[in-house]
Amino acid sequence: MQSYWMQTTESGAALELRDVAIPEPGPGQLLVRVRAAGLNRGEFLAGGIHKPGAAKAIGMEAAGEVAGLGAGVNGFAAGDRIMGRMTGAFSEYALLDAREAMAVPACLSWEEAASVPLTFLVMYDMLVSQGRLRPGEWVLITGASSGVGVASLQTAKALGAKVIGTSGSADKLERLQSLGLDVGICTRSGDFYDRVMQATEGHGADLVVNTVGGTVFADCIRTMAFQARLATVGYVDGVTTSEIDLAALHAKRLTLFGVSNKLRNAEQRVEGVPGFIADVLPLIGAGKIRPVVDRIFSFDQLEAAKAHMEANRHLGKIVLAGVPSKQ
Questions:
Q1: What is the pLDDT of residues 216-239, one digit of tens each?
Q2: Domain at 120-258, CATH class
Q3: For the chain, which has fewer Cβ within 10 Å, the N-terminal or C-terminal residue?
Q4: Can you tell me the distance from the alpha carbon of 45 to that of 62, in angstroms, rounded to the nearest whole number?
Q5: How far apart are CA 143 and CA 236, in angstroms?
Q6: CB-hemisphere CA count at 13 Å for 180?
Q7: Domains 2-116+292-321 and 120-258 share a fold
């Protein structure tokens, strides 16, 4: 089968399309015939998810059909439409922990389904599991046009929250209004404090989703309301350090947390899946939340898809589709 691999160095990453054997599903695993796979910025960052060293198969989320079942797997059959987080998703076939497998709602295309598993589970971790979002609260999302940002906006609105989003593009903010964005702030820097406080009538943000990184971290802290929560999910600005206002942290009883699967074991990664299936997947199935696909690239265009992501031209998810099969 064809599979994309990546060689990572300290300064960058090189992609390679290889011919490799179709993997065999082990105990508790499903073999998936991949139909579409979503791109995620972190997997392409030098020094990010993939550390320098030997080349590795890449791709982290996909949708496709069950092609094989490992020992002990029940509740699935060949041909079932499923989606999930899986290693080596930019391939004709990939393996999936059966505990992470989710049925694809009938209303979703392959490309939309491929936009859900990693992105929306990260969102669920931020907004629900750790963020404890309640109806009527204010959510601030920096970098609101990213895949995680758009998923957070849609779900926060479905859960009854009010959302402020930042973006360097006025056009993107205008497009996000159709998804329910209450307040758009056109900026790429941390100069949004006054506008957040004005929009919330001095209350501040109850939950902050920081997808940008260290350049806006201090101002995220400034905007936080009493007993607010701050989720750090990325650092596309490349800045991984920032000062923390300990007086604000102390007086306002703030909660700061990270959202990453990097150090979690398999059991920890699947903890949020049942809750997501119960709380959010029905909203997707009912059409109340619709994954936003910015652009679809064919399987042989991964380099172009990566470049499109790195140019920050997208709103929502970038998807690799039309995965070929030699069988």
A1: 999 999 999 999 999 999 888 989
A2: alpha beta
A3: C
A4: 20
A5: 9
A6: 21
A7: yes
Please give the model's pTM, rounded to 2 decimal places. 0.93
Domain ranges of the chain: 2-116+292-321, 120-258
- Tell me the two tokens of residue 4: 């994309």
Return the ∠ at Cα 17 (arms to 16 and 20), rounded to 5°: 120
Listed in order, strand segments (DSSP E) in 1-158 are 2-8, 13-19, 29-38, 56-57, 61-69, 81-85, 93-97, 102-103, 138-142
β pairing state of 183-186 and 205-210: unpaired
Record the tokens describing residue 31, joined without a space: 């073999």
Task: Quote the tokens at residue 220.
Answer: 């995220």
Q: Angle 147-158/117-124 helices, nearest 10 degrees?
A: 50
Structure tokens at 196: 């957040």
Domain at 2-116+292-321: CATH architecture = Alpha-Beta Complex (3.90)
Instruction: Determine the Cα–Cα distance for residues 162 and 160; give it in Å rounded to an integer.
Output: 7
CA distance 54 to 8: 8
Q: Please give the full DSSP string across 60-80, using - where no structure is assigned.
A: -EEEEEEEEE-TT--S--TT-
